[in-house]
Specification:
Blueprint: E1 52-53, E2 64-65, H1 93-115, H2 121-127, H3 132-148, H4 150-160, H5 162-182, H6 186-200, H7 202-214, H8 217-248, H9 251-272, E3 279-284, E4 290-295, H10 325-328, H11 342-347, H12 356-383, H13 392-396, H14 399-427, E5 431-432, H15 442-460, H16 465-493, H17 498-518, H18 520-527, H19 529-562, E6 566-568
Antiparallel strand pairs: 1-6, 2-5, 3-4
Helix pairs in contact: 1-5, 1-6, 1-7, 1-8, 1-9, 2-3, 3-6, 3-17, 4-5, 4-7, 4-17, 5-6, 5-9, 7-8, 7-17, 8-9, 8-14, 8-16, 12-16, 12-17, 12-19, 14-16, 15-16, 15-19, 16-17, 18-19
Length: 569
């Protein structure tokens, strides 16, 4: 990206009789050729809709300095704008947490209301006289929709802003749960789940991208772990709650509970989640440290040199006024001011499939999701039928070890990885390398691989129920650990286009997971649990291990090479 592509600043606001002088753009050429100022070169007009490189606007490719020898405090990367209090990185901690947790809750309730019904699948199949494969469609088709419609919501959010997308989709989720609670037929219940998945798909990638909007590099692992725990928690806490609700009331009350909680969160999203989209251009300073230059809705601001208070005039640059709460409620934050069009937003992510980090993240996430959801789909047909013959309430208790596995996975993939990266960075003269995150993929590789085999043997050999519980807990470890690590890695490598890259990860993993899970029931019926889950364990271990073997030693070279590929539209 040309240095002259940043927005102009006019001195006329300060010196009324002065010429309109720009820091970052030259006057538009007339019929007479304008000569550049001394020390400058003429900028060439950018061609519309041409491919460019990641390196042109992200020079470091993820390698940044986060520690200095003169201070124990981490260097803030990206650097927040000192002149703009509306920069999400500059928001007060409480405001950040409220907005972030509201979107996390939205994500949780999507899976709570849809995936939570798995404990009632056996009873639903009896009520509507459906077979096991037919009943499993209540979860399988929503999984596909959750993936596909990432490709719808994310471009809209990149073009119009995240806030209107979150408000619209959260309201639609609320309405779809009311529909599900009132459904009188299996088909109506199925379509209510599909519409709920359409609404909830907006947060699959955008929620993860919001981590990068609100938090710094040294915080992202922990916050991504929290986000992933909310996603997976809906699939474990939901069936646990549903087991008790089904026994005491009915499965419809599970939908009513989901609708009430979603309605409360809808109000919270409307009132307390401002727009987090913020155009931030990173320029590399001394030592590889990044300095922000930003633009937002045509307001004038620029790079600041020196220290001082926000709201003061500095080197002829006036700080941006802080938005009021009422202004932050607006659903309109403008559209991109460059040559970007909406159709370009839809096409831009597709070439990013060429990035190895994206491929590794979506494959690792997909196979982790497959293992967990396979247990979710099948466990009620195992535990509520002879020889176990458990009630839905007791069956739901299998989600306790699943929830514990999620918590431990998010802790390992988030906080523990952050601490490990901090330690590695200090040993590397304060320089952070994104590949440091991948070392701890060894934990889910070992734990989940063993857990998958344990669950398959437990069911296949009708072992004691504790083998099934421990197996499921170990399988659930990967559902948070793997995506927390790999999605943070993708964000580190592709920060300026992270929402597009994360959309590919989230959308693709659901499509791949749907393909696997659509055939899981016939597969189990044909070969049995031992061979089915043993094969899945082998595929999982191979994907995680091969990715580690390639990206840990060669990832830095790959990152810097791929940054020069002309695939950014």
């Amino acid at each position: 990206m040309s240095f002259y592509a940043f927005p102009p600043f006019s001195f006329s606001a300060i010196l009324p009789n002065s010429a309109n002088i720009s820091f970052h753009t030259l006057p538009k050429p007339t019929s007479t050729r304008t000569q550049p100022a001394p020390g400058r070169t003429m900028s060439t007009p950018r061609k519309q809709h041409t491919f460019t490189t990641l390196h042109s606007f992200y020079a470091t490719s993820g390698t940044v300095t986060i520690h200095s020898s003169s201070s124990d405090s981490p260097i803030l990367v990206p650097t927040p704008s000192p002149l703009d209090p509306n920069d999400p990185l500059s928001w007060p901690p409480q405001k950040k947490r409220t907005a972030f947790l509201s979107i996390c809750t939205f994500t949780f309730l999507t899976n709570f209301g849809i995936g939570g019904l798995t404990s009632a699948f056996y009873l639903i199949s009896l009520e509507f006289e459906k077979s096991l494969p037919e009943t499993s469609a209540l979860l399988l088709w929503p999984i596909l929709v959750l993936g596909l419609f990432n490709f719808f919501w994310v471009p809209l959010a990149n073009y119009f802003g995240k806030r209107p997308v979150f408000v619209l989709s959260c309201g639609l989720l609320f309405a779809s749960y009311i529909w599900g609670a009132l459904a009188k037929s299996f088909e109506s219940l199925l379509w209510s789940n599909i519409v709920a998945a359409f609404a909830g798909s907006s947060t699959e990638a955008l929620g993860a991208a919001m981590v990068n909007d609100l938090f710094f590099v040294h915080e992202r692992g922990g916050k991504m772990g929290v986000y992933m725990n909310f996603i997976s928690g809906g699939n474990t806490v939901g069936p646990l709650v549903c087991g008790f609700v089904v026994t005491g009331l009915s499965w419809r009350w599970h939908k009513w509970i989901a609708a009430m909680l979603t309605g409360i969160n809808f109000v919270t999203v409307v009132l307390m989640v401002p727009e987090t989209r913020y155009h931030r251009v990173e320029v590399t300073g001394e030592g590889g440290q990044q300095v922000s230059e930003s633009e937002d809705n045509g307001q004038e601001k620029g790079k600041v040199r020196g220290d001082g208070e926000q709201g003061q005039q500095r080197e002829g640059i006036v700080a941006v006024p802080k938005k009021s709460w009422v202004q932050e409620l607006s659903l309109w934050s403008g559209t991109p001011k460059d040559d970007t069009s909406l159709w370009k937003m839809f096409l831009r992510p597709l070439p990013m499939f060429a990035y190895p980090c994206v491929i590794y993240s979506f494959l690792g996430y997909a196979v982790s999701l497959v293992l967990t959801v396979a247990v979710n789909i099948l466990n009620s047909f195992v535990l509520q039928a002879p020889p176990y013959s458990w009630s839905p309430t007791v069956n739901g208790l299998i989600n306790i070890p699943g929830f514990i596995g999620n918590l431990l996975g998010s802790f390992a993939g988030g906080w523990l990885v952050d601490k490990f990266c901090d330690w590695r960075s200090r040993k590397n003269n304060g320089v952070f390398e994104p590949e440091n995150r991948l070392y701890l993929c060894i934990l889910p590789l070992l734990i989940t691989g063993a857990g998958c085999v344990l669950f398959g043997y437990g069911v296949g050999r009708t072992l004691h129920w504790t083998s099934l519980f421990f197996g499921y807990g170990m399988v659930s470890f990967a559902l948070t650990a793997v995506p927390t690590i790999t999605m943070a890695y993708v964000s580190d490598c592709l920060l300026p286009v992270n929402s597009d890259a994360l959309m590919l990860v989230n959308g693709s993993k659901n499509i791949v997971a749907f393909g696997f899970l659509y055939g899981i029931v016939p597969w189990v019926e044909e070969v049995g649990y031992v061979e089915c889950f043993g094969t899945q364990a082998g595929i999982y271990v191979a994907i995680i291990a091969i990715g580690m073997a390639v990206l840990i030693p060669f990832g830095a070279r790959i990152r810097h090479a791929q940054a020069k590929w002309r695939i950014i539209l």
